[in-house]
Design brief:
alpha+beta, three-stranded antiparallel beta sheet, 2 helices, 3 strands
Length: 102
């Protein structure tokens, strides 16, 4: 089950559980759409994968026990350990490779 992390790992922007700006990689590294496009160039700085919009967990349990009420979003903030120059270098080496071939 997704943690639904509360922030962009690069700029630390708040990303509410229902945010349409949250993007995740296959390991659930979480970044905002601006950082994904302008800084990371759709390359996860942690695994080298690509990003997809983060699904939104329902607020209301339309099925028993399945909603934010029963599986709340994480409150633990995560930040990348890489500096901007490291991110740019990594993205430059990886961005031209199609995600399915990385």
């Amino acid at each position: 089950m997704l943690e639904i992390r509360p922030n962009c790992e690069y700029c630390d922007k708040d990303l509410a559980p229902d945010s349409l700006e949250a993007m995740i990689c296959t390991y659930e590294c979480t970044f905002c759409t601006t950082c994904v496009s302008d800084v990371l160039e759709n390359v996860c700085p942690n695994c080298g994968g690509n990003f997809a919009p983060r699904p939104i967990r329902p607020k209301i349990a339309r099925r028993p026990g399945l909603s934010l009420e029963y599986q709340p979003a994480s409150t633990k903030r995560v930040n990348t350990k890489y500096q901007i120059n490291e991110l740019q270098t990594f993205s430059m080496k990886t961005k031209e490779i199609k995600p399915e071939q990385r």
